[in-house]
Write a structure and sequence with these properties.
Blueprint lengths: L4 H26 L8 H8 L3 H7 L3 H25 L4 H13 L5 H9 L3 H4 L4 H26 L7 H20 L7 H12 L8
Helix pairs in contact: 1-2, 1-6, 4-5, 4-8, 5-8, 5-10, 6-9, 8-9
């Protein structure tokens, strides 16, 4: 017996709302940085029962991995759009830096990012490999921007792989320090410093 289209759409919408609610609750609870967050706490905060939880996630580890994947894919899409929308390769590199670094100064995105610094997240099976896959994806967008800059002559001395690795490492460290409340400097100041170091000739226009 088939489900009417309208009802099927309603079920999908409800399922998406349940899933989103579980993820929001998990971000809020895990992001507090405690020693462990029980599934029961997530259920209570999300207003769902255990059956609903397991309809969307087979385990808490699966939930955390899904959260990391979705957050990383959102960053990937934003980085790609920022870099591809730039006028030339050099501008693409700067746009990538601006977009990625801005996470640390955006209240909601920074708060969600703190989730993945929680000690319990580091214990999730497969989290390290999943995180490195995301990092590699984000670096590749930057490496492409450096290759573009090398080819169009806006950064003729660029070494794409090496430069992307270095820039990514520095920006990632800034985001971690910001999330841990160890970087209390204005976004523009930090951005300009990174750009001056890694993008030759930058600074005069800022």
């Amino acid at each position: 017996m088939s489900v009417p289209a309208g009802r099927a759409a309603g079920l999908r919408d409800r399922g998406e709302q349940e899933r989103a609610g579980i993820i929001r609750a998990a971000h809020r609870l895990i992001g507090r940085g405690g020693t462990g967050t029980a599934i029961e706490d997530i259920l209570r905060a999300a207003g769902v029962n255990r059956r609903t939880f397991y309809r969307h996630f087979p385990s808490k580890d699966a939930l955390v991995l899904a959260m990391q994947r979705e957050a990383g894919e959102l960053v990937r899409d934003r980085l790609h759009a920022a870099a591809e929308g730039a006028a030339d390769g050099r501008a693409a590199v700067i746009s990538w830096i601006e977009e990625f670094l801005a996470i640390g100064w955006h209240e909601r995105r920074s708060r969600e990012g703190r989730t993945f610094l929680a000690p319990e997240v580091g214990l999730v099976a497969g989290i390290a490999d999943a995180l490195e896959d995301l990092h590699e994806c984000h670096r590749e967008i930057l490496a492409h921007a450096f290759r573009r800059a090398h080819e169009d002559g806006t950064l003729p001395g660029a070494v794409p792989g090496r430069d992307a690795f270095a820039v990514h490492a520095v920006v990632l460290r800034c985001l971690e320090m910001r999330a841990r409340a160890r970087l209390d400097r204005p976004y523009a100041e930090v951005r300009d410093e990174i750009v001056r170091v890694f993008v030759p000739g930058a600074g005069s226009e800022r």
